[in-house]
Amino acid sequence: VISKLPQTGTTIFTTMSALAAEVGAINLSQGFPDYESSPELIELVTKAMKDGYNQYAPMPGLMSLREQIAIKTEKLYGAVYNPDTEITVTAGATQAIFTAISALIHPNDEVIIFEPAYDCYAPAIKLMGGVVKSLELDPPNYRIAWDMVKRLINNKTRMIILNSPHNPTATILSKEDIDELSALVKHQDILILSDEVYEHLVYDGVQHHSMARYPELQQRSVIVASFGKTYHATGWKVGYCLAPAYLMQEFRKIHQFLVFSVNAPMQHAIAEYLKDENTYLGLPDFFQQKRDYFREGLKNSRFKILPCAGSYFQSVSYSAISDEKDSDLAIRLTKEFGVAAIPVSAFYRKATDNHVLRFCFAKRQETLDKAVERLIKV
Ligand code: PMP
Ligand code: GLN
User: Is any ligand 2 atom within 6 A of the Cβ of residue 31?
Assistant: First the structure.
């Protein structure tokens, strides 16, 4: 066959998790918790199955879940989304992202992404015949130079993809970024795809700037979220998409043929669990503690600890330790020291390698202790 994605291999997450398993390393590479989700939530899923909710959910998602998502979104961001026409439950954020890009990108449309970028954006754009325009951001602060973004915009620019809190750099968009973005798109026919899967993982008392907060951005935005992140259950693959009705109408045309609907018992359980805002309001404290604990431990290592304002990732620079390629060091770290990390070069389309590794700190304290014990030997 003629490959539709000739440059694309197997994802770095699959590769590093497999290597970690093979050599028995502590896996801080792929982002997922090594502790259980809440017993109450698991009980609710079991109950939903026993109660017979095992057949197709409605195509856009269970209404009770969409209603709870609408309540949560209004409470947190002041935005009113109509559950009937503006909220769709998806098989994780990944499906929401792919669906949004398929629904909205035409051949030759240009899409601006910021690199390092989460790995699922560019392949979807290319599959639709779109053109990826990337702007590389530099460590340690990875700030967006908005004047550079402006230079990338022309009459083919169809979409800008944003991700805050950001994977892998752990940066967040500031109010200044929002103002720059608003000014930039104001008189343009440009959509925003906003990947907000780490919306609750923002630290140091700072607020998350969801696109939903800003009406002029909200009306051109598709926002994606993930219950896998929020409820420590990445294997459930349940997320959702928020968009104004004119965009959601197109989104659902694809969604209905991609998955039709998402697993029913989890939706029943999450709809119930989401009623209690404490199930997500405590997340910043919960993860900030882990972040601080891990960073404190790393202070005894030779790695340079980069800033972490949000997400459950901590990046480090190893320029003072080695001049190896980051992918080589990630493999060596896994095999020789027993800790798996993600080489950040995997998030660039070019061969950019700033000698940065990413660790996931959504782990039990014992796991972080053991990992730090090994990392200080590097
Ligand atoms: N976007 C970002 C930035 C992510 O880190 C992830 C990964 N976990 C996803 C999307 C995909 O989320 P999900 O597991 O819900 O598909
Ligand atoms: N989002 C997770 C990460 O960045 C990985 C998810 C996946 O493996 N697709 O580690």
Answer: yes
Atom nearest to 91 CA in ligand 1: 16
| C-alpha–C-alpha distance, residues 308 and 295, integer Å | 9
| Contact predicate 265/339, CB 8 Å | no
Q: What is the DSSP string of 312-360?
A: SEEEEE-TTT--S-HHHHHHHIIIIISEE-EEGGGG-SS----SEEEEE
Number of Cβ within a 10 Å radius of residue 378: 17
Instruction: Confirm or reject: Cβ of 31 under 6 Å from ligand 1.
Output: yes
Cβ of 18 less than 6 Å from ligand 2: no
pLDDT of 13 reads: 97
Q: Residue 86 is which amino acid? A: E
- At 64-90, the pLDDT tens digits run 999 999 999 999 999 999 999 999 999
Question: Is the CB of 195 inside a 6 Å radius of any atom of ligand 1?
Answer: yes
Global confidence as pTM:
0.98
Which CATH number among 3.40.640.10, 3.10.350.10, 3.20.20.60, 3.90.226.10 corresponds to the domain 39-277? 3.40.640.10
Compute the distance from residue 98 Cα to the ligand 1 centre, in Å: 11
Q: How far apart are CA 342 and CA 16, in angstroms?
A: 7
- Closest residue CA from atom 14 of ligand 1: 92
